[in-house]
Amino acid sequence: MSTQNLTRADFEPTVTGGGIVLVDFWASWCGPCRQFAPVYEAASEQHPDIVFGKVDTEAEQELAAAADITSIPTLMAFRDGVLVFAQPGALPASALNDVIRAVRDLDMDDVRAQLATA
């Protein structure tokens, strides 16, 4: 599955659905974003069970502001509607695979319990 562009209209329904959703916040003028794009696209082909979304921060400035994006690229990972990872910076393929593995391995009952006590 290839990446899909997310807008303010479809961002929330996408990330609050079930399963794993990765979101890359990027801009066309950003060099590190352009370097990360093929890594992200390749991962989307390797993991068809994960939704890979992209948010163009220039076109979706309100959405980027609502997500507190201060540096791009920023990668966010959601699992079962819960934000479980957010980090700025372009990742090499091995680090992106580590993030995907870690998100897959999460015990979501434990995550929800931790959130309830926070």
UniProtKB/TrEMBL annotation:
SUPFAM superfamilies: Thioredoxin-like
Gene3D superfamilies, A to Z: Glutaredoxin (3.40.30.10)
Domain Thioredoxin: 1-105
The entry's keywords: Disulfide bond, Electron transport, Redox-active center, Transport
Keyword Disulfide bond (UniProt): yes
One Pfam family this sequence matches: Thioredoxin
InterPro entries: Thioredoxin, Thioredoxin-like_sf, Thioredoxin_CS, Thioredoxin_domain
Family under the similarity heading: Belongs to the thioredoxin family.
Official protein name in the record: Thioredoxin
